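ok so for the tutorial part 2 we go from a plain amino acid sequence to predicted C-alpha coordinates. step 1 is just haveing the sequence, like this:
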Amino acid sequence: MRYVLALVVATALGFPAVAAARKVTHTFILGGARTIKDEQNIENAVTRVPGVARATTRRNAVTITYDDRIVTAKTLRAAVHGAGKKYHLGAPTQVARRLPRKKVVSTHPAG
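step 2 — the prediction. this is what the C-alpha coordinates look like for a chain of 111 residues:
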Protein backbone atom coordinates (compact mmCIF):
# COMPACT_ATOMS: atom_id res chain seq x y z
CA MET A 1 0.00 0.00 0.00
CA ARG A 2 2.81 2.39 0.86
CA TYR A 3 4.51 1.56 -2.44
CA VAL A 4 1.37 2.43 -4.42
CA LEU A 5 0.99 5.71 -2.54
CA ALA A 6 4.64 6.59 -3.20
CA LEU A 7 4.17 5.80 -6.89
CA VAL A 8 1.10 8.06 -7.12
CA VAL A 9 2.86 10.94 -5.32
CA ALA A 10 6.01 10.58 -7.45
CA THR A 11 3.95 10.61 -10.64
CA ALA A 12 1.96 13.65 -9.51
CA LEU A 13 5.14 15.56 -8.69
CA GLY A 14 6.68 14.72 -12.06
CA PHE A 15 9.48 12.47 -10.84
CA PRO A 16 10.82 9.82 -13.22
CA ALA A 17 8.92 6.55 -13.28
CA VAL A 18 9.55 4.35 -10.29
CA ALA A 19 10.52 0.75 -11.03
CA ALA A 20 7.71 -1.77 -10.84
CA ALA A 21 7.50 -4.17 -7.92
CA ARG A 22 9.90 -7.09 -8.20
CA LYS A 23 8.18 -10.26 -7.05
CA VAL A 24 10.12 -13.38 -6.20
CA THR A 25 8.90 -16.78 -5.07
CA HIS A 26 10.77 -18.89 -2.53
CA THR A 27 9.89 -22.10 -0.75
CA PHE A 28 10.94 -22.19 2.89
CA ILE A 29 11.22 -25.16 5.24
CA LEU A 30 8.45 -24.95 7.82
CA GLY A 31 8.58 -26.35 11.32
CA GLY A 32 5.90 -26.87 13.91
CA ALA A 33 2.87 -27.07 11.60
CA ARG A 34 1.16 -30.39 12.19
CA THR A 35 -2.45 -29.79 11.19
CA ILE A 36 -4.38 -28.02 8.44
CA LYS A 37 -5.37 -25.35 10.97
CA ASP A 38 -1.68 -24.71 11.68
CA GLU A 39 -1.04 -24.29 7.97
CA GLN A 40 -3.97 -21.88 7.64
CA ASN A 41 -2.69 -19.82 10.60
CA ILE A 42 0.72 -19.52 8.94
CA GLU A 43 -0.72 -18.61 5.53
CA ASN A 44 -2.91 -15.91 7.10
CA ALA A 45 -0.04 -14.45 9.13
CA VAL A 46 2.34 -14.32 6.17
CA THR A 47 -0.18 -12.84 3.71
CA ARG A 48 -0.83 -9.97 6.15
CA VAL A 49 2.79 -8.82 5.77
CA PRO A 50 2.93 -5.78 3.44
CA GLY A 51 4.63 -6.80 0.20
CA VAL A 52 3.57 -10.46 0.31
CA ALA A 53 1.38 -11.40 -2.63
CA ARG A 54 0.72 -15.06 -1.85
CA ALA A 55 1.57 -17.81 0.62
CA THR A 56 0.73 -21.49 0.36
CA THR A 57 1.69 -24.26 2.74
CA ARG A 58 2.16 -27.90 1.98
CA ARG A 59 3.32 -30.40 4.57
CA ASN A 60 6.61 -29.07 5.90
CA ALA A 61 7.11 -26.15 3.48
CA VAL A 62 5.62 -22.77 2.69
CA THR A 63 5.89 -21.12 -0.73
CA ILE A 64 5.79 -17.33 -0.55
CA THR A 65 5.60 -14.80 -3.39
CA TYR A 66 6.74 -11.37 -2.25
CA ASP A 67 8.47 -8.14 -3.24
CA ASP A 68 12.03 -8.66 -2.08
CA ARG A 69 12.65 -4.90 -1.89
CA ILE A 70 10.01 -4.56 0.83
CA VAL A 71 10.03 -7.92 2.60
CA THR A 72 13.05 -9.67 4.11
CA ALA A 73 13.47 -13.24 5.34
CA LYS A 74 13.67 -11.82 8.86
CA THR A 75 10.23 -10.21 8.43
CA LEU A 76 8.78 -13.49 7.16
CA ARG A 77 10.29 -15.42 10.08
CA ALA A 78 8.81 -12.91 12.54
CA ALA A 79 5.36 -13.26 10.94
CA VAL A 80 5.48 -17.07 11.13
CA HIS A 81 6.70 -16.99 14.73
CA GLY A 82 3.99 -14.45 15.55
CA ALA A 83 1.33 -16.87 14.28
CA GLY A 84 2.33 -19.24 17.06
CA LYS A 85 5.43 -19.76 19.17
CA LYS A 86 5.71 -23.37 18.01
CA TYR A 87 6.06 -22.41 14.33
CA HIS A 88 9.39 -21.56 12.75
CA LEU A 89 10.55 -20.74 9.25
CA GLY A 90 13.76 -22.33 8.08
CA ALA A 91 16.03 -21.67 5.16
CA PRO A 92 14.73 -21.44 1.62
CA THR A 93 14.93 -24.76 -0.18
CA GLN A 94 16.40 -25.21 -3.60
CA VAL A 95 13.80 -26.14 -6.16
CA ALA A 96 14.84 -29.18 -8.13
CA ARG A 97 14.99 -28.49 -11.84
CA ARG A 98 13.20 -30.93 -14.05
CA LEU A 99 15.73 -32.49 -16.40
CA PRO A 100 14.71 -33.60 -19.88
CA ARG A 101 14.13 -37.31 -20.26
CA LYS A 102 16.85 -39.29 -21.92
CA LYS A 103 15.89 -41.24 -24.96
CA VAL A 104 15.98 -44.94 -24.15
CA VAL A 105 17.39 -47.09 -26.91
CA SER A 106 16.48 -50.75 -26.82
CA THR A 107 19.30 -53.22 -27.21
CA HIS A 108 16.88 -56.03 -28.06
CA PRO A 109 16.32 -56.75 -31.75
CA ALA A 110 12.79 -56.12 -32.93
CA GLY A 111 10.96 -59.22 -33.73
